[in-house]
């Protein structure tokens, strides 16, 4: 579905991605792990067209056709079926919950929007209760739900999720991760950037570990969860830690 090949990307004078190779297959949840500044968010911004690579290719295959994402603007990439739920949620605080959700469908035919709004309210019942309230008055967890629902309103084939658990209480984190699995079950592929490596590896099919803008490790999520380098650096576990915590 999505293939990144040899991507080199700069933000201003700094190179943030160095020869990134990455693949996401249809129906997968793929996790991107790494410390702050490793290049995780920059990878998502490049896929969604907000950063442009200086070298390499970013290719999306949809219905048997391949599209060079580096040649498309962000709106065209959304139109192909890629939705980006950004770090920090970035809801429009002065607009209502309902208005935020409708913005997520701005490229779509209006005919199917009411049914999809009801689907989002079914996925996140609290948003139905808050539909007329201002997004800026929601709690952090509710804003995260709104940001995900707004992205889903574009009916994406591929959802880019950047740090969905950031700043949330543990019970809300569990709820968000359950919802991500539901999203995949409903047919949407997910590329997930997540600070909680243990939860991400439990949820994902495969994962990539980035360091200094380059892929350092990759593989099945279960294999990486057992890798001593990942356990020590990202899970906070020594090589003799009890396996059950994974």
Integer count of domains: 1
Largest sheet: 6 strands, mixed
Q: Compute the gyration radius: what is it?
A: 18 Å
Number of strands: 10
**Structural class by helix and strand composition:** alpha/beta
Number of H- or I-type helical stretches:
10
Order of helices and strands: EEEHEEHEHHHHEHEHEEHH
User: Which parts are unreliable, with pLDDT below 50 for 5 consecutive residues or more?
Assistant: 239-246
Average per-residue pLDDT, rounded, comes to 91
Task: State the separation between the terminal residues, measured CA to CA.
Answer: 29 Å
> Could you name the CATH topology?
Rossmann fold
Query: What CATH architecture label applies?
Result: 3-Layer(aba) Sandwich
Describe the structure in brief.
With 246 residues, the protein is an alpha/beta fold. The protein has a single domain (2-87, 156-245), classed as P-loop containing nucleotide triphosphate hydrolases (Rossmann fold).
Keywords:
single chain; 246 residues; alpha/beta; Rossmann fold; four-stranded antiparallel sheet; 35% helix; disordered C terminus
Written description of the protein model:
- The protein has a single domain (2-87, 156-245), classed as 3-Layer(aba) Sandwich (Rossmann fold), CATH 3.40.50.300.
- Helices cover 35% and strands 27% of the residues.
- A hairpin with a 2-residue loop joins strand 9 (206-211) and strand 10 (214-220).
- It is built from 10 helices and 10 strands.
- The chain has 246 residues and is α/β, with parallel strands linked by helices.
């Amino acid at each position: 579905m999505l293939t990144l090949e040899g991507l080199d990307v700069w933000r201003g004078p700094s190179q943030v991605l160095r020869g990134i190779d990455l693949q996401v297959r249809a129906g997968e949840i793929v996790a991107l792990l790494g410390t702050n500044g490793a290049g995780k968010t920059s990878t998502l911004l490049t896929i969604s067209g907000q950063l442009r690579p200086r070298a390499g290719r970013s290719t999306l295959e949809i219905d048997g056709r391949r599209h060079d994402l580096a040649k498309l603007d962000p709106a065209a990439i959304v139109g192909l079926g890629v939705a980006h739920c950004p770090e920090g949620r970035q809801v429009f605080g002065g607009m209502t919950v309902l208005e935020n959700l409708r913005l997520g469908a701005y490229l779509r035919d209006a005919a199917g929007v009411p049914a999809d709004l009801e689907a989002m309210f079914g996925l996140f019942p609290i948003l139905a209760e808050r539909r007329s309230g201002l997004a800026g008055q929601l709690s952090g967890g509710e804003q995260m739900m709104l940001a995900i629902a707004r992205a889903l309103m574009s009916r994406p084939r591929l959802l880019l999720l950047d740090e969905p658990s950031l700043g949330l209480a543990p019970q809300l984190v569990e709820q968000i991760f359950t919802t991500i699995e539901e999203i995949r079950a409903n047919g949407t592929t997910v590329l997930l950037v997540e600070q909680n490596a243990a939860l991400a590896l439990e949820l994902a099919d495969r994962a990539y570990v980035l360091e200094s803008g380059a892929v350092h490790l990759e593989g099945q999520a279960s294999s990486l969860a057992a890798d001593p380098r990942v356990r020590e650096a990202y899970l906070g576990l020594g090589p003799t830690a009890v396996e059950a915590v994974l």
